[in-house]
Amino acid sequence: MTLAGPDRIGGSGGHARPASRVPSWLARHLVWWFTLVTWLVYSVYCVSRYPQFLTAGYDLGIFDQAVRRYANFEAPLVALKGDHYNLLGDHFHPILATLAPLYWIWDDPRMLVIAQAALVSLSIPVVHGMMRRHGASGGLLWALTVGYAFSWPIQRLVDFDFHEISFAVPLLAVALDGLDRREDRRFLLGAVPLLLVREDMGMVLAMLGIVRGWLALRDRRAGLDQQPLGRQLGLAAGLVATGTIVFFLVIKVVLPHFAPTGEFAYWTYDSLGPDAVSSIKFILLHPIQTAQIFFTPWVKTQSLLYLLVPLALLPLRSPYVLATLPLLAQRNLSSRTHLWGTSFHYSGPIFVILVFAAADALRKFSPDWRRRLAKYLVAMVLLTPAFDLAIQGRNYPLVRLTWSAWRKKPIMIHQQAILQHIPANTCVEVDDRLAPHLTRSNRVTLPTLTKRVSDFVVLDMSQAEVGYPLPSPQEIEKRVKARGYTPVAQEGPITVWQRPDYAGPSEGCSPDAP
User: Fold this and answer.
1) How many CA atoms lie within 13 A of 382 on its CB side?
2) Cα–Cα separations (whole angstroms), residue 224 to 1, 35, 217, 218, 267
3) pTM of the predicted model as reported, rounded to 2 decimal places
4) pLDDT of 287-297, one tens digit each?
Protein backbone atom coordinates (compact mmCIF):
# COMPACT_ATOMS: atom_id res chain seq x y z
CA MET A 1 0.00 0.00 0.00
CA THR A 2 1.47 3.32 -1.06
CA LEU A 3 0.22 6.53 0.45
CA ALA A 4 -0.50 9.51 -1.74
CA GLY A 5 -1.88 13.03 -1.49
CA PRO A 6 -3.00 14.02 2.01
CA ASP A 7 -1.59 10.82 3.60
CA ARG A 8 2.00 11.75 2.80
CA ILE A 9 4.48 13.12 5.34
CA GLY A 10 4.40 16.87 5.02
CA GLY A 11 1.66 16.49 2.39
CA SER A 12 -0.56 19.42 1.42
CA GLY A 13 -4.08 18.17 1.03
CA GLY A 14 -5.17 17.50 -2.51
CA HIS A 15 -2.31 19.44 -4.08
CA ALA A 16 0.36 17.23 -5.61
CA ARG A 17 3.89 17.70 -4.34
CA PRO A 18 6.33 18.77 -7.05
CA ALA A 19 8.41 15.90 -8.36
CA SER A 20 11.96 15.71 -7.10
CA ARG A 21 14.60 17.08 -9.44
CA VAL A 22 16.90 14.21 -8.50
CA PRO A 23 16.37 11.12 -10.70
CA SER A 24 14.98 8.18 -8.75
CA TRP A 25 17.93 5.92 -9.69
CA LEU A 26 20.36 8.52 -8.38
CA ALA A 27 18.34 8.96 -5.20
CA ARG A 28 18.52 5.20 -4.59
CA HIS A 29 22.27 5.23 -5.08
CA LEU A 30 22.70 8.24 -2.82
CA VAL A 31 21.18 6.44 0.14
CA TRP A 32 23.53 3.49 -0.39
CA TRP A 33 26.51 5.84 -0.58
CA PHE A 34 25.33 7.45 2.64
CA THR A 35 24.95 3.99 4.18
CA LEU A 36 28.50 3.14 3.17
CA VAL A 37 29.84 6.37 4.68
CA THR A 38 27.91 5.76 7.90
CA TRP A 39 29.32 2.23 8.12
CA LEU A 40 32.85 3.53 7.58
CA VAL A 41 32.44 6.25 10.23
CA TYR A 42 31.06 3.82 12.78
CA SER A 43 33.65 1.18 11.89
CA VAL A 44 36.56 3.59 12.30
CA TYR A 45 35.15 4.66 15.64
CA CYS A 46 34.61 1.09 16.88
CA VAL A 47 38.09 0.01 15.81
CA SER A 48 39.60 3.10 17.47
CA ARG A 49 38.26 1.95 20.83
CA TYR A 50 40.35 -1.22 20.67
CA PRO A 51 43.90 0.26 20.99
CA GLN A 52 42.55 2.59 23.69
CA PHE A 53 41.51 -0.44 25.76
CA LEU A 54 37.91 0.79 25.89
CA THR A 55 36.68 -2.63 24.79
CA ALA A 56 36.46 -5.41 27.35
CA GLY A 57 36.20 -9.13 27.83
CA TYR A 58 32.57 -8.56 28.73
CA ASP A 59 31.26 -8.48 26.02
CA LEU A 60 33.69 -8.25 23.08
CA GLY A 61 36.00 -10.97 24.35
CA ILE A 62 33.08 -13.30 25.04
CA PHE A 63 31.69 -13.01 21.52
CA ASP A 64 35.17 -13.24 20.02
CA GLN A 65 35.69 -16.61 21.70
CA ALA A 66 32.23 -17.80 20.63
CA VAL A 67 32.53 -16.80 16.97
CA ARG A 68 36.06 -18.25 16.79
CA ARG A 69 34.65 -21.58 17.93
CA TYR A 70 31.86 -21.34 15.38
CA ALA A 71 34.46 -20.58 12.71
CA ASN A 72 36.18 -23.85 13.64
CA PHE A 73 32.82 -25.70 13.49
CA GLU A 74 32.80 -26.18 17.25
CA ALA A 75 30.26 -25.46 19.97
CA PRO A 76 30.48 -21.90 21.38
CA LEU A 77 32.36 -22.77 24.57
CA VAL A 78 33.56 -19.51 26.13
CA ALA A 79 36.31 -19.59 28.74
CA LEU A 80 35.61 -15.99 29.75
CA LYS A 81 32.30 -17.17 31.20
CA GLY A 82 33.84 -20.24 32.86
CA ASP A 83 35.30 -23.67 32.12
CA HIS A 84 33.45 -25.40 29.26
CA TYR A 85 30.74 -22.71 29.40
CA ASN A 86 28.41 -23.04 26.41
CA LEU A 87 27.26 -19.55 25.47
CA LEU A 88 23.93 -20.94 24.27
CA GLY A 89 23.17 -21.40 27.97
CA ASP A 90 23.65 -17.67 28.54
CA HIS A 91 21.42 -16.25 25.82
CA PHE A 92 19.88 -17.96 22.80
CA HIS A 93 21.65 -16.35 19.83
CA PRO A 94 22.52 -19.00 17.20
CA ILE A 95 22.49 -16.19 14.63
CA LEU A 96 26.05 -15.45 15.78
CA ALA A 97 27.18 -18.44 13.72
CA THR A 98 26.53 -16.39 10.57
CA LEU A 99 29.57 -14.28 11.50
CA ALA A 100 31.92 -17.27 11.39
CA PRO A 101 32.97 -16.75 7.74
CA LEU A 102 34.29 -13.32 8.68
CA TYR A 103 36.85 -15.04 10.93
CA TRP A 104 38.08 -17.03 7.96
CA ILE A 105 39.07 -13.65 6.51
CA TRP A 106 40.42 -11.98 9.66
CA ASP A 107 40.50 -13.79 12.98
CA ASP A 108 40.29 -10.74 15.21
CA PRO A 109 37.74 -9.30 17.69
CA ARG A 110 37.74 -6.05 15.73
CA MET A 111 35.97 -7.92 12.94
CA LEU A 112 32.93 -8.15 15.22
CA VAL A 113 32.64 -4.40 15.79
CA ILE A 114 33.03 -3.79 12.06
CA ALA A 115 30.23 -6.29 11.46
CA GLN A 116 28.07 -4.59 14.09
CA ALA A 117 28.55 -1.23 12.36
CA ALA A 118 27.45 -2.88 9.11
CA LEU A 119 24.35 -4.42 10.68
CA VAL A 120 23.23 -1.10 12.11
CA SER A 121 23.95 0.74 8.86
CA LEU A 122 21.94 -1.75 6.81
CA SER A 123 18.76 -0.46 8.44
CA ILE A 124 19.32 3.02 6.96
CA PRO A 125 18.15 2.30 3.37
CA VAL A 126 15.04 0.57 4.74
CA VAL A 127 14.11 3.52 6.98
CA HIS A 128 14.95 5.98 4.18
CA GLY A 129 12.73 4.06 1.76
CA MET A 130 9.86 4.02 4.23
CA MET A 131 10.07 7.78 4.74
CA ARG A 132 10.30 8.34 0.99
CA ARG A 133 7.30 6.10 0.42
CA HIS A 134 5.34 8.15 2.93
CA GLY A 135 6.04 11.29 0.92
CA ALA A 136 9.12 12.82 2.54
CA SER A 137 11.48 14.21 -0.07
CA GLY A 138 14.41 16.57 -0.58
CA GLY A 139 15.90 18.16 2.51
CA LEU A 140 13.16 16.82 4.80
CA LEU A 141 13.83 13.24 3.71
CA TRP A 142 17.58 13.52 4.16
CA ALA A 143 17.31 15.34 7.49
CA LEU A 144 15.15 12.52 8.82
CA THR A 145 17.50 9.88 7.38
CA VAL A 146 20.63 11.48 8.84
CA GLY A 147 18.79 12.06 12.11
CA TYR A 148 17.95 8.36 12.32
CA ALA A 149 21.43 7.17 11.32
CA PHE A 150 23.08 9.27 14.03
CA SER A 151 20.29 9.23 16.60
CA TRP A 152 21.31 8.72 20.20
CA PRO A 153 19.98 5.12 20.46
CA ILE A 154 21.94 4.06 17.38
CA GLN A 155 25.11 5.82 18.55
CA ARG A 156 24.79 4.25 22.00
CA LEU A 157 24.47 0.81 20.42
CA VAL A 158 27.58 1.39 18.33
CA ASP A 159 29.46 2.71 21.37
CA PHE A 160 29.05 -0.65 23.08
CA ASP A 161 31.62 -3.38 22.35
CA PHE A 162 29.49 -5.89 20.47
CA HIS A 163 26.14 -7.47 21.16
CA GLU A 164 23.87 -9.92 19.40
CA ILE A 165 21.02 -7.41 19.66
CA SER A 166 22.60 -5.51 16.74
CA PHE A 167 21.15 -8.19 14.44
CA ALA A 168 17.67 -7.10 15.50
CA VAL A 169 18.10 -3.58 14.08
CA PRO A 170 18.08 -4.45 10.34
CA LEU A 171 15.72 -7.39 10.84
CA LEU A 172 13.14 -5.26 12.64
CA ALA A 173 13.48 -2.59 9.96
CA VAL A 174 12.76 -5.13 7.20
CA ALA A 175 9.87 -6.69 9.15
CA LEU A 176 8.22 -3.33 9.87
CA ASP A 177 8.79 -2.20 6.31
CA GLY A 178 6.97 -5.33 5.16
CA LEU A 179 4.13 -4.52 7.54
CA ASP A 180 3.98 -0.97 6.27
CA ARG A 181 3.87 -2.16 2.65
CA ARG A 182 1.44 -4.97 3.54
CA GLU A 183 3.90 -7.39 1.92
CA ASP A 184 3.82 -10.51 4.03
CA ARG A 185 6.84 -12.17 2.43
CA ARG A 186 9.00 -9.17 3.23
CA PHE A 187 7.48 -8.99 6.69
CA LEU A 188 8.27 -12.64 7.42
CA LEU A 189 11.76 -12.31 5.94
CA GLY A 190 12.60 -9.84 8.70
CA ALA A 191 10.38 -11.18 11.48
CA VAL A 192 11.07 -14.92 11.59
CA PRO A 193 14.91 -14.70 11.86
CA LEU A 194 14.41 -12.60 15.01
CA LEU A 195 13.89 -15.93 16.80
CA LEU A 196 17.60 -16.64 16.26
CA VAL A 197 18.75 -13.30 17.73
CA ARG A 198 17.80 -13.75 21.37
CA GLU A 199 15.20 -15.49 23.49
CA ASP A 200 13.14 -12.31 24.12
CA MET A 201 12.57 -11.90 20.38
CA GLY A 202 10.00 -14.68 20.59
CA MET A 203 7.67 -12.30 22.39
CA VAL A 204 8.55 -9.53 19.94
CA LEU A 205 7.47 -11.85 17.11
CA ALA A 206 4.24 -12.56 18.98
CA MET A 207 3.54 -8.84 19.30
CA LEU A 208 4.32 -8.33 15.61
CA GLY A 209 1.67 -10.97 14.94
CA ILE A 210 -0.83 -8.97 16.99
CA VAL A 211 0.11 -5.84 15.03
CA ARG A 212 -0.41 -7.73 11.76
CA GLY A 213 -3.91 -8.73 12.86
CA TRP A 214 -4.67 -5.18 14.03
CA LEU A 215 -3.64 -3.76 10.65
CA ALA A 216 -5.78 -6.31 8.81
CA LEU A 217 -8.85 -5.22 10.78
CA ARG A 218 -7.98 -1.53 10.40
CA ASP A 219 -7.59 -1.88 6.65
CA ARG A 220 -10.86 -3.78 6.40
CA ARG A 221 -12.72 -0.98 8.20
CA ALA A 222 -11.09 1.57 5.88
CA GLY A 223 -11.92 -0.48 2.79
CA LEU A 224 -8.24 -0.86 1.89
CA ASP A 225 -7.67 -4.58 2.36
CA GLN A 226 -6.82 -6.57 -0.75
CA GLN A 227 -6.32 -10.00 0.86
CA PRO A 228 -8.85 -12.37 2.46
CA LEU A 229 -9.30 -11.33 6.08
CA GLY A 230 -9.23 -14.92 7.30
CA ARG A 231 -5.84 -15.51 5.71
CA GLN A 232 -4.41 -12.39 7.32
CA LEU A 233 -5.78 -13.21 10.76
CA GLY A 234 -4.54 -16.78 10.40
CA LEU A 235 -1.02 -15.48 9.70
CA ALA A 236 -1.27 -13.17 12.70
CA ALA A 237 -2.43 -15.98 14.99
CA GLY A 238 0.33 -18.25 13.71
CA LEU A 239 2.98 -15.67 14.55
CA VAL A 240 1.56 -15.09 18.02
CA ALA A 241 1.55 -18.83 18.72
CA THR A 242 4.99 -19.44 17.22
CA GLY A 243 6.64 -16.54 19.05
CA THR A 244 5.10 -17.48 22.40
CA ILE A 245 5.89 -21.20 22.09
CA VAL A 246 9.48 -20.57 21.02
CA PHE A 247 10.00 -18.08 23.86
CA PHE A 248 8.86 -20.51 26.56
CA LEU A 249 10.61 -23.45 24.90
CA VAL A 250 13.90 -21.57 24.87
CA ILE A 251 13.79 -20.25 28.44
CA LYS A 252 12.37 -23.46 29.91
CA VAL A 253 14.25 -26.10 27.91
CA VAL A 254 17.03 -24.87 25.63
CA LEU A 255 18.81 -22.39 27.88
CA PRO A 256 18.64 -24.58 31.02
CA HIS A 257 19.97 -27.51 28.97
CA PHE A 258 23.14 -25.62 28.03
CA ALA A 259 23.51 -23.53 31.21
CA PRO A 260 25.97 -24.92 33.80
CA THR A 261 23.45 -24.20 36.56
CA GLY A 262 20.58 -25.86 34.71
CA GLU A 263 18.56 -22.63 34.95
CA PHE A 264 17.85 -19.53 32.88
CA ALA A 265 20.46 -17.05 34.14
CA TYR A 266 18.65 -13.78 33.42
CA TRP A 267 15.27 -14.10 35.07
CA THR A 268 15.78 -11.04 37.28
CA TYR A 269 12.22 -9.91 37.96
CA ASP A 270 12.24 -10.10 41.73
CA SER A 271 9.12 -7.93 42.11
CA LEU A 272 7.04 -10.14 39.80
CA GLY A 273 7.93 -13.72 40.60
CA PRO A 274 10.55 -16.48 40.33
CA ASP A 275 9.62 -17.56 36.79
CA ALA A 276 7.71 -16.53 33.67
CA VAL A 277 4.39 -18.13 34.65
CA SER A 278 4.26 -16.56 38.10
CA SER A 279 5.31 -13.20 36.67
CA ILE A 280 2.52 -13.24 34.07
CA LYS A 281 0.08 -14.14 36.82
CA PHE A 282 1.31 -11.20 38.92
CA ILE A 283 0.96 -8.78 35.98
CA LEU A 284 -2.62 -9.90 35.30
CA LEU A 285 -3.71 -9.81 38.94
CA HIS A 286 -1.84 -6.63 39.93
CA PRO A 287 -1.88 -4.23 36.95
CA ILE A 288 -1.55 -1.06 39.03
CA GLN A 289 1.42 -2.36 40.99
CA THR A 290 2.97 -3.57 37.74
CA ALA A 291 2.59 -0.08 36.26
CA GLN A 292 4.30 1.39 39.32
CA ILE A 293 7.23 -0.98 38.85
CA PHE A 294 7.35 -0.15 35.13
CA PHE A 295 7.54 3.65 35.55
CA THR A 296 9.46 4.03 38.81
CA PRO A 297 12.05 5.03 39.82
CA TRP A 298 12.18 8.18 37.71
CA VAL A 299 15.07 6.99 35.55
CA LYS A 300 12.71 4.52 33.85
CA THR A 301 10.22 7.22 32.88
CA GLN A 302 13.05 9.50 31.86
CA SER A 303 14.37 6.88 29.45
CA LEU A 304 10.91 6.41 27.95
CA LEU A 305 10.55 10.16 27.42
CA TYR A 306 13.97 10.30 25.84
CA LEU A 307 12.75 7.79 23.27
CA LEU A 308 9.29 9.24 22.69
CA VAL A 309 9.57 13.03 22.98
CA PRO A 310 11.92 13.42 19.98
CA LEU A 311 9.23 11.62 17.99
CA ALA A 312 6.49 13.93 19.32
CA LEU A 313 4.89 10.97 21.17
CA LEU A 314 3.58 9.91 17.76
CA PRO A 315 4.40 6.21 18.24
CA LEU A 316 1.71 6.05 20.93
CA ARG A 317 -0.89 6.58 18.19
CA SER A 318 0.23 3.56 16.15
CA PRO A 319 -0.31 -0.18 16.75
CA TYR A 320 3.35 -0.67 15.78
CA VAL A 321 4.29 0.50 19.26
CA LEU A 322 2.98 -2.79 20.64
CA ALA A 323 6.11 -4.49 19.32
CA THR A 324 8.20 -2.49 21.81
CA LEU A 325 6.34 -3.82 24.85
CA PRO A 326 8.40 -7.02 25.36
CA LEU A 327 11.65 -5.06 25.08
CA LEU A 328 10.48 -2.26 27.35
CA ALA A 329 9.03 -4.69 29.88
CA GLN A 330 12.27 -6.67 29.88
CA ARG A 331 14.10 -3.49 30.91
CA ASN A 332 11.70 -1.64 33.17
CA LEU A 333 10.34 -4.62 35.10
CA SER A 334 13.79 -6.05 35.71
CA SER A 335 15.68 -5.69 38.98
CA ARG A 336 18.93 -5.02 37.04
CA THR A 337 19.35 -1.27 37.44
CA HIS A 338 21.74 -0.83 34.51
CA LEU A 339 18.91 -1.75 32.14
CA TRP A 340 16.81 1.26 33.12
CA GLY A 341 18.85 4.15 31.73
CA THR A 342 19.83 5.32 28.25
CA SER A 343 23.34 3.90 28.34
CA PHE A 344 24.53 0.80 26.52
CA HIS A 345 22.86 -0.79 23.51
CA TYR A 346 19.37 -1.58 24.76
CA SER A 347 17.49 1.30 23.10
CA GLY A 348 18.59 0.62 19.51
CA PRO A 349 15.98 -1.99 18.47
CA ILE A 350 13.25 -0.13 20.36
CA PHE A 351 14.00 3.08 18.48
CA VAL A 352 13.71 1.34 15.10
CA ILE A 353 10.17 0.27 15.98
CA LEU A 354 9.28 3.73 17.26
CA VAL A 355 10.46 5.40 14.05
CA PHE A 356 8.14 3.22 11.96
CA ALA A 357 5.33 3.78 14.47
CA ALA A 358 5.76 7.56 14.21
CA ALA A 359 5.54 7.44 10.41
CA ASP A 360 2.41 5.27 10.62
CA ALA A 361 0.79 7.67 13.11
CA LEU A 362 1.31 10.69 10.85
CA ARG A 363 -1.35 9.31 8.50
CA LYS A 364 -4.02 10.23 11.04
CA PHE A 365 -3.33 13.98 11.04
CA SER A 366 -4.51 16.75 8.76
CA PRO A 367 -2.11 18.06 6.10
CA ASP A 368 -1.32 21.19 8.14
CA TRP A 369 -0.53 19.17 11.25
CA ARG A 370 1.56 16.75 9.24
CA ARG A 371 3.72 19.60 7.99
CA ARG A 372 4.16 20.97 11.51
CA LEU A 373 4.96 17.58 12.98
CA ALA A 374 7.40 16.80 10.17
CA LYS A 375 9.32 20.00 10.96
CA TYR A 376 9.27 19.12 14.66
CA LEU A 377 10.64 15.66 13.91
CA VAL A 378 13.47 17.12 11.86
CA ALA A 379 14.36 19.55 14.63
CA MET A 380 14.19 16.95 17.39
CA VAL A 381 16.08 14.13 15.69
CA LEU A 382 18.91 16.57 15.11
CA LEU A 383 18.72 18.55 18.37
CA THR A 384 18.27 15.66 20.81
CA PRO A 385 21.75 14.23 20.17
CA ALA A 386 23.16 17.76 20.28
CA PHE A 387 21.54 18.32 23.67
CA ASP A 388 22.82 15.01 25.01
CA LEU A 389 26.27 15.72 23.64
CA ALA A 390 26.48 18.78 25.85
CA ILE A 391 25.69 16.61 28.89
CA GLN A 392 27.66 13.44 28.23
CA GLY A 393 29.36 13.74 24.86
CA ARG A 394 31.97 11.12 25.66
CA ASN A 395 29.39 8.43 24.91
CA TYR A 396 28.94 9.56 21.32
CA PRO A 397 31.08 8.19 18.50
CA LEU A 398 31.02 11.41 16.46
CA VAL A 399 32.35 13.43 19.39
CA ARG A 400 34.97 10.88 20.41
CA LEU A 401 36.23 10.58 16.83
CA THR A 402 36.88 14.32 16.87
CA TRP A 403 38.32 14.82 20.34
CA SER A 404 39.64 11.69 21.98
CA ALA A 405 39.60 8.61 19.77
CA TRP A 406 43.28 8.91 18.93
CA ARG A 407 44.66 10.06 22.28
CA LYS A 408 46.56 7.68 24.53
CA LYS A 409 46.61 8.05 28.26
CA PRO A 410 49.59 6.72 30.27
CA ILE A 411 47.55 3.73 31.46
CA MET A 412 46.92 2.73 27.83
CA ILE A 413 50.68 2.70 27.18
CA HIS A 414 51.17 0.42 30.19
CA GLN A 415 48.33 -1.83 29.03
CA GLN A 416 49.84 -2.19 25.58
CA ALA A 417 53.31 -2.88 26.98
CA ILE A 418 52.18 -5.57 29.40
CA LEU A 419 50.75 -7.66 26.56
CA GLN A 420 54.27 -8.30 25.26
CA HIS A 421 55.05 -10.30 28.41
CA ILE A 422 52.31 -12.91 27.81
CA PRO A 423 53.43 -15.85 25.62
CA ALA A 424 50.91 -17.19 23.12
CA ASN A 425 49.09 -20.45 23.83
CA THR A 426 49.20 -20.02 27.57
CA CYS A 427 46.27 -20.00 30.01
CA VAL A 428 45.70 -16.52 31.40
CA GLU A 429 43.44 -14.96 34.02
CA VAL A 430 43.38 -11.32 33.16
CA ASP A 431 41.80 -7.95 33.93
CA ASP A 432 38.60 -7.43 31.93
CA ARG A 433 40.02 -4.45 29.99
CA LEU A 434 42.93 -6.56 28.70
CA ALA A 435 40.95 -9.68 27.82
CA PRO A 436 39.97 -8.95 24.18
CA HIS A 437 43.61 -8.23 23.36
CA LEU A 438 44.61 -11.78 24.28
CA THR A 439 41.70 -13.91 23.09
CA ARG A 440 43.32 -14.24 19.63
CA SER A 441 46.39 -15.95 21.07
CA ASN A 442 45.55 -17.43 24.47
CA ARG A 443 42.95 -19.22 26.53
CA VAL A 444 41.61 -16.23 28.46
CA THR A 445 39.29 -15.97 31.42
CA LEU A 446 38.77 -13.57 34.30
CA PRO A 447 40.14 -14.22 37.79
CA THR A 448 37.98 -16.57 39.93
CA LEU A 449 36.04 -17.93 36.90
CA THR A 450 38.15 -21.02 36.26
CA LYS A 451 39.05 -24.11 38.29
CA ARG A 452 42.14 -24.68 36.15
CA VAL A 453 45.56 -23.55 37.32
CA SER A 454 46.38 -20.67 34.99
CA ASP A 455 49.90 -20.05 33.73
CA PHE A 456 49.63 -16.31 34.30
CA VAL A 457 47.44 -13.90 36.22
CA VAL A 458 47.51 -10.28 35.04
CA LEU A 459 46.24 -7.66 37.49
CA ASP A 460 45.73 -3.94 36.97
CA MET A 461 45.95 -2.45 40.46
CA SER A 462 44.47 0.86 39.25
CA GLN A 463 41.07 -0.75 38.64
CA ALA A 464 38.33 -1.07 41.25
CA GLU A 465 37.59 -4.66 40.20
CA VAL A 466 39.03 -7.25 37.85
CA GLY A 467 35.67 -7.37 36.12
CA TYR A 468 32.05 -6.76 37.02
CA PRO A 469 31.00 -7.96 39.59
CA LEU A 470 34.22 -9.72 40.59
CA PRO A 471 36.65 -8.95 43.45
CA SER A 472 39.21 -6.16 43.51
CA PRO A 473 42.70 -6.75 42.08
CA GLN A 474 44.08 -6.36 45.62
CA GLU A 475 41.99 -9.31 46.77
CA ILE A 476 43.07 -11.43 43.79
CA GLU A 477 46.71 -10.49 44.46
CA LYS A 478 46.46 -11.98 47.96
CA ARG A 479 45.11 -15.20 46.52
CA VAL A 480 47.78 -15.61 43.84
CA LYS A 481 50.53 -14.96 46.35
CA ALA A 482 49.08 -17.64 48.59
CA ARG A 483 49.17 -20.06 45.64
CA GLY A 484 52.86 -19.44 45.09
CA TYR A 485 52.65 -17.20 42.02
CA THR A 486 55.56 -14.80 41.51
CA PRO A 487 55.65 -11.45 39.65
CA VAL A 488 57.61 -11.70 36.37
CA ALA A 489 56.77 -8.38 34.70
CA GLN A 490 55.34 -5.00 35.59
CA GLU A 491 54.25 -1.99 33.56
CA GLY A 492 52.96 0.88 35.67
CA PRO A 493 50.19 -0.47 37.93
CA ILE A 494 49.87 -3.73 35.94
CA THR A 495 51.68 -6.88 37.08
CA VAL A 496 52.05 -10.33 35.49
CA TRP A 497 52.09 -13.19 37.99
CA GLN A 498 53.44 -16.59 36.90
CA ARG A 499 52.54 -19.98 38.37
CA PRO A 500 55.41 -21.71 40.22
CA ASP A 501 55.50 -24.78 37.95
CA TYR A 502 54.98 -23.02 34.63
CA ALA A 503 56.22 -25.31 31.82
CA GLY A 504 55.63 -23.17 28.74
CA PRO A 505 52.90 -22.90 26.08
CA SER A 506 50.58 -25.86 25.49
CA GLU A 507 47.86 -26.94 23.08
CA GLY A 508 45.35 -26.95 25.94
CA CYS A 509 45.81 -23.21 26.27
CA SER A 510 45.17 -22.30 22.62
CA PRO A 511 42.68 -19.49 21.82
CA ASP A 512 39.79 -21.88 21.18
CA ALA A 513 40.45 -24.10 24.22
CA PRO A 514 37.17 -24.50 26.19
Assistant:
1) 13
2) 8, 34, 10, 9, 43
3) 0.92
4) 999 999 999 99
